[in-house]
Amino acid sequence: MNFESPIIKTISTVADIITLIGVITAIGLFKKRNHNVVAFKISMLLQYMLRSAIIIIGTTFIFYIIAFLYSFILPMFKGDWGKDLYWEKDKEIQHLLAYVISACIGLPVVWIFSTIVWTSSLRQTKIFLNHFLPKGTLSTEKEYALEIISATYGSKKTIDVTQLLREMVVNNSLTVTASNELAGDPDVGVGKKMIIMYKVGGKQYQKRVAEGYSITIPSTTEKPEPET
Prior knowledge:
Blueprint: H1 4-30, H2 35-78, H3 92-119, H4 123-130, E1 140-141, E2 146-154, E3 158-160, H5 162-167, E4 174-177, H6 180-183, E5 193-200, E6 203-210, E7 214-217, E8 226-227
Antiparallel strand pairs: 1-8, 2-3, 2-5, 4-7, 5-6
Helix pairs in contact: 1-2, 2-3
């Protein structure tokens, strides 16, 4: 079975689509006024493009493994270890069984691999595996939502940066530096701070960050305990 040509064509097409989306998105982002958000979103875009490429390449290798697995399973059902792996008359059941078994093994592997790469987390994988393992075998963090209620930057004169910080939240987490690059200098020559009001899991918190310092919210003490 020659899979090389369709696989190469698929990878090439997907790569072209990702590149086109990247260019269009970058042009759209540059039209925004806030360059800090633009830089952040372009960085995230590049990360997701890289993840997409890794998923495509990894899935391609897994596809070859599935094809090899199919070429091993089919002869077992046919009772014939010949090289003919194409659909054969009067042996439809054997082919279908080989397809189903190969898919049942290969597709979960593809899903697990893609999920880990895309989310940079094992949470969804653990949830999936827990369906087949004794209860409590793999612990997973509870879902929690980070909600930015309000955020200001400045001293006596301030700038509202609430929407800007909301746009910078990724996977219910925010890392930000209190600086003039965030949204300009509201009070020239005066030391400034950023005040953030936010909710995590229904609880409200407030953090103050001095100019030049960074913060990541929520902190580990504000996250829900792992559930077992």
